[in-house]
Each structure stands twice: as structure tokens, then as C-alpha cells.
Design goal:
Length: 237
């Protein structure tokens, strides 16, 4: 069995979704009826909605400018964050009056990008710590850089995204499995699996116990990923 990489520069592929379902005991005939690419796109969209920016970006992505109000203290929360591995350099400029001349601040002298281990961890800079408290008009702090999460995803987050993609298939998957088990006398009911509530045959999960065990595990992984991308889950102390 080939060794999985520790870092990924792309999202899960159709073959990854199919392999995970097959490993959970789902028949190939049922897998062939699914839309793995649509499920991947949906999971990525959910993740990027939480983040407010692309999850994966290329290192040569073009930098763009965002404007912020001066914070009440030394910490400026960036929201989705800046990609540390991008070729484009981060720049921070302040403008403290309507007719004031913009002043470009110097990293390491006027401000610090944080967390300081973001680059080695392939995670975004999520806040700026100013050496001195900034004063000025609303939207007077200009931050330019590549906005997003990272150029590489660690295995645990990539796997969580894969799990999220499979979860998007639960409605059609359980429906298809129910049809195949209809002659077993299964009655259609509703069951909540994590945050998903779908119709399924009572015989389905009994027939596919490995799938029944893995569904809540996949939900927990995907929920953890979404939380890690939500600003409120990673505010600096």
C-alpha cells in the first residue's frame, strides 16, 4: 500500500471519494450512481465560505488589497488570513487622516505577522500585532497580500475535506442503498447522523455496519475542519 503524503497541493479527487466509499463497504454499483465531483465541490465551497477566501491558492497568486479599521489595541484580526508561502510580499500601509500621506510600515519594526510559525506550519497569518496602537479613520489600514489559507494542506485537513465530500453524498447514497435493500422489509424512517438528517431504510446501516460506524467519524472530522477555518475558533489570546 503506497504511503500517503504529509502535504497536499490539491483537493481530493473523484478516485479518493470512490476509494473511501469502497473501503466502507459500499458496493461499486452504488458508487457508480453518485456524483463525487459535485460532492467535492460542495465540501470545498462550505470550507471556503467559513474561511471567507480560497482554501488552497497557488504560490504565484496575485496579491490584493483589503482595508481595515484601526483596532482598539495592538492586535488587528485579519479574518481569513494571509498565505505565508505566496511569492507576493505582504505590505501594510496606514493613512491617519483624510488628506494624510499614506505611510508604509516596516515588518519586524512597526508590526509583526502572526502566528510567527505560520510559514513552517503552512497555515495563514491570521492577525497583525502592531508595535504601537494605530489611530485613524475607518478603513485607514491597508493590507496587501495573497488572501487565503495555504498553498499546501496537511494530511489531517485534506482527509477531513475528503470526509466532508463523502458526507455530501449521504442523501443520494442512503437512498440508493435503501432501494437495494427494499426486499429485505426495511421501513423508511429518518435518522440524524451528526448534522445530517436523511431518509434511509432501517436495514441499510445494519447491512453496512462499517459505513454506519464511519459516518459520525467523518462528520466529526469535517466539523473540526470547518471550526478551524472559522475566525471565532482561532482568535489570538
Amino acid at each position: 500500500m503506497p504511503t500517503q503524503p504529509n502535504w497536499y497541493d490539491d483537493y481530493p479527487q473523484v478516485s479518493d471519494v470512490q476509494a473511501l466509499l469502497l473501503g466502507a463497504g459500499v458496493p461499486q454499483s452504488i458508487i457508480d450512481l453518485q456524483d463525487p465531483q459535485g460532492a467535492i465541490d460542495a465540501a470545498v465551497s462550505l470550507a471556503q465560505y467559513r474561511l471567507g477566501a480560497p482554501l488552497l491558492v497557488s504560490a504565484d497568486e496575485v496579491a490584493t488589497l483589503r482595508k481595515f479599521d484601526p483596532p482598539s489595541g495592538p492586535i488587528l484580526w485579519l479574518g481569513c488570513g494571509l498565505v505565508p508561502d505566496a511569492t507576493a510580499q505582504v505590505s501594510v500601509t496606514t493613512r491617519n487622516g483624510v488628506d494624510a500621506t499614506p505611510v508604509e510600515l516596516v515588518e519586524g519594526q512597526d508590526y509583526f505577522l502572526a502566528p510567527n510559525n505560520a510559514s513552517t506550519q503552512h497555515q495563514p497569518y491570521t492577525w497583525i500585532e502592531f508595535r504601537h496602537v494605530q489611530y485613524g479613520l475607518p478603513r485607514s489600514i491597508y493590507v496587501t497580500g495573497v488572501w487565503g489559507y495555504a498553498t499546501l494542506l496537511p494530511r489531517v485537513q485534506w482527509s477531513a475535506l475528503l470526509a466532508g465530500a463523502v458526507l455530501q453524498l449521504v442523501p443520494t447514497l442512503t437512498s440508493a442503498l435503501s432501494v437495494t435493500q427494499a426486499q429485505a422489509g426495511g421501513q423508511i424512517k429518518r435518522k440524524k447522523i451528526g448534522q445530517l438528517e436523511e431518509e434511509y431504510s432501517t436495514t441499510v446501516l445494519a447491512t453496512y455496519p462499517k459505513l454506519a460506524i464511519q459516518l459520525p467519524q467523518w462528520q466529526a472530522r469535517f466539523d473540526s475542519l470547518l471550526c478551524s477555518l472559522q475566525p471565532s475558533c482561532k482568535l489570538p489570546l
